[in-house]
Amino acid sequence: MAHFKPGLMRDMTPEDIRQRVTELREELFNLRFRNAMRQLDNPLKIRESRRELARLLTVLGEKQAAEGGAKKL
Q: What pLDDT is stored for residue 68 in this prediction?
């Protein structure tokens, strides 16, 4: 699982961000499932994935707002 810094996330295209968001949502589902079954070695992976997902969604929102603002001008 590669973690990105917000600076690197801002360099990604919106489609790449959406793809990574989908991957993280699937990963979170699997991590939560494994945690419920007591098969997860490191429960902190859930927190890391959740935070990375939030960062990606924030950057995606910024990009969409910038596009919307540019179109209004």
A: 84
Q: What's the pLDDT at 64?
A: 92
Q: Check: CB of residue 19 under 8 Å from CB of residue 60.
A: no
Residue 73 has what pLDDT? 47
Q: Does residue 40 come out as left (phi exceeding 0), alpha (psi in the -120 to 50 range) or beta?
A: beta
The pTM of the full predicted model, rounded to 2 decimals, is 0.83
Every domain of the chain and the residues it spans? 6-66
Structure token pair of residue 45: 């992976």
- CATH classification of 6-66 is 3.40.50.300, yes or no? no
Task: Give Cα separations from 65 to 15, 17, 58, 60, 62 (angstroms).
Answer: 15, 15, 10, 9, 5
